[in-house]
From TrEMBL, chain A:
Protein name: Succinate dehydrogenase flavoprotein subunit
CC cofactor: FAD
Chain positions found as Tele-8alpha-FAD histidine: 45
Region (Disordered): 528-554
GO CC, one annotated term: plasma membrane
Record PROSITE patterns: FRD_SDH_FAD_BINDING
Residues at which FAD binds: 14-19, 37-52, 221, 382, 398-399
Positions with a binding annotation for substrate: 242, 254, 353, 393
Catalysis performed (reactions): a quinone + succinate = fumarate + a quinol
Bilayer topology term: Peripheral membrane protein
TrEMBL record, chain B:
Pfam families xref list: Fer2_3, Fer4_17
NCBIfam families: dhsB, PRK05950.1
Involved pathway(s): Carbohydrate metabolism; tricarboxylic acid cycle; fumarate from succinate (bacterial route): step 1/1
Protein name per the record: Succinate dehydrogenase iron-sulfur subunit
Annotated GO MF terms: 2 iron, 2 sulfur cluster binding; 3 iron, 4 sulfur cluster binding; 4 iron, 4 sulfur cluster binding; electron transfer activity; metal ion binding; succinate dehydrogenase (quinone) activity
Species per Swiss-Prot/TrEMBL record: Andreprevotia lacus DSM 23236
Cofactor note: Binds 1 [4Fe-4S] cluster. Binds 1 [3Fe-4S] cluster.
Enzyme Commission code: 1.3.5.1
Length: 590, 236
């Protein structure tokens, strides 16, 4: 069959914060740009971000991008690339002010400047004491930001393809990226979107876990497409478990609650974080807080009839502060925990939240494999690994990442398109045919494994074998199990073969992406025999040479998982920033 | 809450095989941990993978899973399933063309949203830092900017059913006032001109269905009233 081809200067897959920020650059530069999204742009998962976006504006007290950089490097447990981190932290005030100019309804200080609140791991003067760096719109920062960016794109006449799912990347024989194959969800029609430059801004894949704060749509589509096209995935063993998901429901409760004065308590009513992080306490880095919570629960100090969660207490805060600064949290708490936080504490438990790894890029958003730029291919946001978050992301750096790298990748694409030949090259139809065949196979298979069964098997395996604390034997077993699940996924069947808005087929295609992420995660995690940031395992002991089990001598390097043969390769961490001195390795404590 | 059985009657329509829509009965077993209508629909889809609906964040912020639940528009993900009279009647949002089952074509809804120029317009040069805004002025945006564009309001509004092409509808007008109320926006006059029309604004007859159904507890009728006040003041 011949697949129709639509031609553009640029194609952006994903219309969350990163995709929209990039789209704005390209549209305003007058380039013919197509933005594909599985959902209407304002339904992208950026909408669920709550607490804030970080920038050293210093609106309430002195702050500096260099301190922000220090915190980010420390938060990353030194796995973050220091050039990219410097770039992000320096750019932060610019992109946040720009967002305000776009109409973002930030909360305000008495002097009319943007309101900033404290957040986990945000410190002044190189780790000294907490600083107000998180710029917030109540506890709906992501919602306000996503809508402001969408609105600005409406102004810029950006061309959206709403409810289109990208299926596969198209690369020519030299590996240069030529665009994507995509399906219109309403009709199941398949098209090629050919472009000079292609950006993946497809977000994360938190749905590989059984318990996740992530939306249903967070199925790692960009990662699946990249992996199938031979692009390795970087640092996929590092997943952030957010300390405060609503117990049972998994819905996120922002760290901003602790920023506003919230306290975590165990069954004795004790503020246990004082023991784990004497300085930062409840505002220690997320990995540190999550481990402390699980330790409390494992040692029998959990709350509730099953002693399976802890409590987030804000009953001591002024109800007016809760109503004005944390209205969304109050709403979520009432709806999903049945608790009004003004009157009673919220039951919370660490919940899978964010993927630190992703498609390897530099700070310009260019995809880099084997030290070579993959021509025409860009990635930004959660799908990308620049790497600014390293082994653990600081709260509010995700929204910042979207703005900074959405913009920088947009600029890189503009530059690339300007220098590219005017006419698009001949399309490599082999990749297109492979993609169409993958869909055909699903349409034709009449018996096999139910999509739901395979997905549950994957999620249960990830949850059990690759959680907050990891164990050598469990990881080994998990790696074997996930390869078994992969065989099930290879044989999934859908009953509904119709063409009109077939969500059964979409879920099957999403599972084919998720399984790539699950494999990458489990196999990378099993291999990394140290503890660093969010990856903590029982056999990496805390010794003077290896504080907290971190083994810089052997493991100060990025993992690169290749789908072909599940091969692992490694590359060094960039320790040299752009202009300042290296932030030297240090034991991490809060 | 323990395990229980929930009965549904769901609107079904697949244009490829159905000459017309029909209601189909379903029974779903829910676990103790499943409380929301969306939990039940997701489970139902495991039994019959052809049942089609949109969903994403499952926490009431993305606005995907708006539908008509026992005759009233709402979001499936924040609706307690046990509070609903059974069999639970689920239909697509009223007044919009149905693509399939509970999935409606929202083109007209977004067209109206876009028609109010939903972005801050400011013709003064942007300063190096943020534009200052007092806390009081910022407070004017509360109850306006939180809209999630789920369309529960506009598709519960008789005026929108009758004139979806001419009446902006509660969601679009709420957004219009969000920008009028923003001290950083300098286009109030143009915005009022844009709405000075027998249909675009004045088809609102304060029926207040929009207020009744908004899952975010917003009040489009009040915002519309404020726009009408500004219109009157402008003439005076």
């Amino acid at each position: 069959m011949t697949v129709p081809v639509r031609k553009f200067d640029a194609v952006i897959v994903g219309a969350g914060g990163a995709g929209l920020r990039a789209a704005l650059q390209l549209s305003e530069a007058g380039l013919k740009t197509a933005v594909l999204s599985k959902v209407f742009p304002t339904r992208s998962h950026t909408v669920a971000a709550q607490g804030g976006v970080s920038a050293s504006l210093g609106n309430s007290e002195p702050d500096h991008w260099h301190w922000h950089m220090y915190d980010t490097v420390k938060g990353s447990d030194w796995l973050g690339d220091q050039d990219a981190i410097e770039f992000m932290c320096r750019e932060a005030p610019n992109v946040v002010v720009e967002l305000e100019h776009f109409g973002m309804p930030f909360d305000r200080n008495a002097d009319g400047t943007i309101y900033q609140r404290p957040f986990g791991g945000h410190m002044s003067n190189f780790g000294e004491k907490p600083v107000r760096r998180a710029c917030a719109a109540a506890d709906r920062t992501g919602h306000a930001m996503l809508h402001a960016l969408y609105q600005r794109n409406v102004r810029a006449n950006t061309q959206f393809f709403v409810e289109w799912m990208a299926l596969d990347l198209v690369r020519d024989e030299q590996g240069n990226v030529q665009g994507v194959v995509a399906m219109e969800m309403e009709t199941s029609d398949i098209y090629v979107f050919q472009a000079k430059a292609t950006l993946f801004a497809t977000g994360g894949a938190g749905r590989i876990f059984a318990s996740s704060t992530n939306a249903f749509i967070n199925t790692g589509d960009g990662l699946g497409m990249a992996a199938r096209a031979g692009i390795p995935l970087e640092d996929m063993e590092f997943w952030q478990f957010h300390p405060t998901g609503v117990a049972g429901a998994g819905v996120l409760i922002t760290e901003g609650v602790r920023g506003e004065g919230g306290i975590l308590r165990n069954s004795n009513g004790e503020r246990f974080m004082e023991r784990y992080a004497p300085n930062a306490k409840d505002l220690a880095s997320r990995d540190v807080v999550s481990r402390a919570m699980v330790t409390e629960i494992n040692e029998g100090r959990g709350c509730g009839p099953n002693k399976d969660h802890v409590l987030l207490d804000i009953t001591h805060l002024d109800p007016e502060v809760i109503k004005s600064k944390l209205p969304g949290i109050r709403e979520i708490s009432i709806k999903f925990a049945g608790v009004d936080p003004i009157k009673a504490p919220i039951p919370v438990v660490p919940t899978c939240h964010y993927q630190m790894g992703g498609i390897p890029t530099n700070y310009k958003g260019e995809v880099v494999v084997n030290d070579q730029i993959v021509s025409g291919f860009y990635a930004a946001g959660e799908v990308a690994c620049a790497s600014v978050h390293g082994a653990n992301r600081l709260g509010t750096n995700s929204l910042l990442d979207l703005l900074v790298f959405g913009k920088s990748s947009g600029n890189s694409m503009i530059d690339f398109i300007k220098h590219a030949p005017k006419d698009l090259p001949v399309l490599n139809t082999a990749d297109v045919e492979r993609s169409v065949a993958r869909v055909d196979e699903l349409n034709q298979r009449s018996s096999g494994v139910e999509v739901n069964d395979a997905r549950l098997a994957m999620q249960a395996t990830m949850q059990k074998h690759c959680g907050v604390f990891r164990f050598k034997d469990m990881l080994k077993e998990g790696a074997e199990k996930i390869l078994e699940v992969e065989k099930q996924v290879a044989n999934i069947v859908i009953a509904d073969k119709s063409k009109t808005f077939n969500t059964a087929r979409l879920e099957a295609l999403e599972l084919q992406n998720l399984i790539e992420v699950a494999k990458a995660t489990m196999i990378s995690a099993e291999a990394r025999t140290e503890s660093r940031g969010a990856h903590v395992r029982d056999d990496a002991e805390d010794t003077p040479e290896r504080p907290n089990g971190r083994d810089d001598q052997n493991w100060l390097k990025h993992t690169l998982w290749h789908r072909e043969g599940n091969q692992l390769k490694y590359k060094p961490v960039t320790m040299k920033p752009l202009t300042v001195d290296t932030i030297a390795l240090k034991t991490r404590s809060y | 809450m323990t395990t229980r059985t929930i009965k549904f009657s769901i609107y079904r329509f697949d244009p490829e095989k159905d000459a017309k829509p029909y209601m189909k009965d379903y029974t779903v077993e829910l676990d103790a941990t499943e409380h929301k209508l969306l939990d039940a629909l997701v489970k139902l889809k495991v039994l019959d993978d052809s049942v089609s609906f949109r969903r994403s964040c499952r926490e009431g912020v993305c606005g995907s899973d708006a539908m008509n639940i026992n005759g009233k528009n709402g979001l499936a993900c924040v609706t307690d399933v046990d509070s609903l009279k059974q069999p639970i009647q689920i239909r697509p949002l009223p007044g919009l063309p149905v693509i399939r089952d509970l999935i409606v074509d929202m083109t007209q809804f977004f067209k109206q949203y876009h028609s109010i120029k939903p972005y801050v317009q400011n013709d003064t040069p942007a300063p190096d830092r943020e534009r200052l805004q007092s806390q009081e002025d910022r407070k004017e945006l509360d109850g306006l900017y939180e809209c999630i564009l789920c369309a529960c309001c506009s598709t519960s509004c008789p005026s929108f059913w009758w004139n979806p092409d001419k009446f902006v509808g509660p969601a679009g007008l709420l957004a219009a006032y969000r920008f009028i109320a923003d001290t950083r926006d300098t286009a109030t006059n143009e915005r009022l001109d844009n709405l000075e029309d027998p249909y675009r604004l004045f088809r609102c007859h304060t029926i207040m269905n929009c207020v009744d159904v908004c899952p975010k507890d917003l009040n489009p009728t009040k915002a519309i009233g404020k726009i009408k006040d500004l219109m009157v003041k402008r003439i005076a």
